């Protein structure tokens, strides 16, 4: 298991990573300390046929929203992925995407959990997205109540 940046031998930057399909390299992002970071993880588009675990080493995050797909009521089989995110790359791998409702841009999240669970690992099933808040400082996150 790789845990240190200097152990990764497949690093690339945004310009090197193919944006029309699946990346063949490891893209990293430095996250500043003492900041509240919002991230969206997706498991939609071509190539998303199985659940994917997400784990942050040494950090926890709050799951503020999950976007579910459509499932058959009797078997629970995925019928259609979540429709809130639109894949914009040509081959529909969702390596680039946008919100269907542009009012969600810049972190404007509606319908978020008022008391979000704190996790260090979550499983992201096919057809879903999760929206998390990550605090890299010693604070307990309490989100304000929102009106939808």
UniProtKB/TrEMBL annotation:
<keyword id="KW-0472">Membrane</keyword>
<dbReference type="GO" id="GO:0005507">
    <property type="term" value="F:copper ion binding"/>
</dbReference>
<dbReference type="InterPro" id="IPR011706">
    <property type="entry name" value="Cu-oxidase_C"/>
</dbReference>
<keyword id="KW-0812">Transmembrane</keyword>
<dbReference type="Pfam" id="PF07731">
    <property type="entry name" value="Cu-oxidase_2"/>
</dbReference>
<protein>
    <recommendedName>
        <fullName>Plastocyanin-like domain-containing protein</fullName>
    </recommendedName>
</protein>
<dbReference type="InterPro" id="IPR008972">
    <property type="entry name" value="Cupredoxin"/>
</dbReference>
<feature type="transmembrane region" description="Helical">
    <location>
        <begin position="122"/>
        <end position="141"/>
    </location>
</feature>
<dbReference type="GO" id="GO:0016491">
    <property type="term" value="F:oxidoreductase activity"/>
</dbReference>
<keyword id="KW-1133">Transmembrane helix</keyword>
<feature type="domain" description="Plastocyanin-like">
    <location>
        <begin position="21"/>
        <end position="129"/>
    </location>
</feature>
């Amino acid at each position: 298991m790789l845990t240190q940046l200097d152990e990764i031998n497949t690093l690339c930057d945004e310009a090197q990573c193919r944006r029309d399909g699946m990346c063949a390299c490891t893209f990293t992002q430095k996250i500043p300390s003492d900041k509240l970071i919002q991230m969206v993880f997706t498991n939609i588009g071509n190539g998303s046929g199985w659940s994917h675990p997400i784990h942050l080493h040494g950090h926890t995050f709050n799951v503020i929203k999950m976007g579910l797909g459509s499932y058959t009521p009797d078997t629970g089989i995925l019928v259609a992925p979540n429709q809130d995110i639109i894949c914009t790359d040509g081959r529909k791998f969702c390596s680039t995407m946008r919100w269907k409702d542009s009012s969600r841009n810049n972190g404007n999240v509606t319908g978020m959990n008022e008391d979000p669970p704190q996790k260090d690992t979550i499983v992201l099933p096919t057809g879903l997205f999760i929206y998390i808040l990550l605090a890299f400082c010693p604070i307990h996150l309490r989100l304000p109540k929102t009106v939808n």
